[in-house]
Design a protein that fits this description.
By secondary structure, the chain is of the alpha+beta class. The chain contains four helices and ten strands. The chain has a five-stranded mixed sheet, with helices on both faces. A three-stranded antiparallel sheet has the order 7-9-8. It has a two-stranded antiparallel ribbon with strand order 4-5. Strand 4 and strand 5 form a beta hairpin. The longest helix has 14 residues. It is globular and about 50 Å long.
Amino acid sequence: MPLITRKPTAIIYLRRQDVVFINKQTSVRLDIPVGLVQNLEVIDAAKLSELIAGFLDQQHCHGKRVLLALDPTVVFHKSISAKQSATIIAAANNFEYQLPFDVGNRQAIAITKKDGISFFGVNKQLHQTVVRGIQHANKLLAIVPAASYGVSGSKSVDSKIITALFTNTAPLKQPNFLTKT
């Protein structure tokens, strides 16, 4: 896994029903229209990718180092304690198997913490569609669960979280959905 040492200059924050573009000066939200994504399943990948690319063009988002942060509303999560870590392979396989997506669209990562292991799972097609909209004019650094920055539940993206997303590089050094394909 590549070691990421540079901080992002823009954040794309993906939630269940919208995408938020964040830079140091502003935060702008794009609602995802009904019919493009339903229950975390991509209905029209080409239109969603085109919509995001156009939105980012409107925000003059070109040549940025972008972090794609996935809100807890689009990520499945499970933690096991260090005591249970002997069963990590079985737990990882079971977690990925239980993700409610087609086999080819499931993607999971495991992040080791001092008190155990956290598994995060996503619909790979969803974030890859968003990535296509981002990458036309930007460098994508990583795709990380926002939980790595302390975001939990349906908490809104406040200034404390935004500051953490721009300054805390520790989660960028952990496994992420960009480096595990």
